[in-house]
Amino acid sequence: MVQRIGVRDLQVFTCIGVTAAERSRPQPIFVSFTAVRDVKEAVQNDSVADTFDYSAAAKLVKRCAASLSRTLLERLVADVAESLLEADPALSRIEVEALKPGIPTGSAGAYAFCSLEADE
């Protein structure tokens, strides 16, 4: 049994932007991620140990976002996706989206999306 498990709109702080001024201070970014994995044992055992631990994943996403200054959202979502896949070998796929609110002006925000298969 394969399911999708994830978190929506996790607020993280990271130095990101095209200009040096944008990268000079941490800004809020909203990250959503969805893990795809077999959860048959988790369903049978009703055990967190047999499923995707989204609480631990959220902590990892926050650490990953804060670890580097980046120019592009595309780089951020790729870094987060790779970190999540590396942390949980049972994942078959991870999808990550990051939203930078209010950019461009007048919009809800700009976003980037990344989907990685475990064997990529």
What's the topology here?
Elements: E1 2-14, H1 20-23, E2 27-38, H2 40-45, H3 54-67, H4 73-87, E3 91-101, E4 109-117
Antiparallel strand pairs: 1-2, 2-3, 3-4
Helix pairs in contact: 3-4
Protein model, in words:
This protein is an alpha+beta fold and 120 residues long. It has a single domain, classed as GTP cyclohydrolase I, C-terminal domain/NADPH-dependent 7-cyano-7-deazaguanine reductase, N-terminal domain (GTP Cyclohydrolase I, domain 2). Helix content is 32%, strand content 38%. It has a 4-stranded antiparallel beta sheet, with helices on one face. A hairpin with a 7-residue loop joins strand 3 and strand 4. The two termini are 22 Å apart.
- Number of discrete helical segments: 4
Low-confidence runs: none
Spatial order of the strands forming the largest sheet: 1-2-3-4
The main pleated sheet reads as: 4 strands, antiparallel
CATH fold label: GTP Cyclohydrolase I, domain 2
CATH superfamily: GTP cyclohydrolase I, C-terminal domain/NADPH-dependent 7-cyano-7-deazaguanine reductase, N-terminal domain
Fraction in helix: 25-40%
Strand/helix succession = EHEHHHEE
Averaging pLDDT over every residue, what do you get? 94
State which percent range the strand residues make up: 35-45%
Quickly name the level 1 CATH class. Answer: Alpha Beta
Per DSSP E runs of 2 or more residues, the count of β-strands stands at: 4
Indicate the structural class.
alpha+beta
Overall outline: elongated
From the alpha carbons, calculate the radius of gyration and give it in angstroms. 15 Å
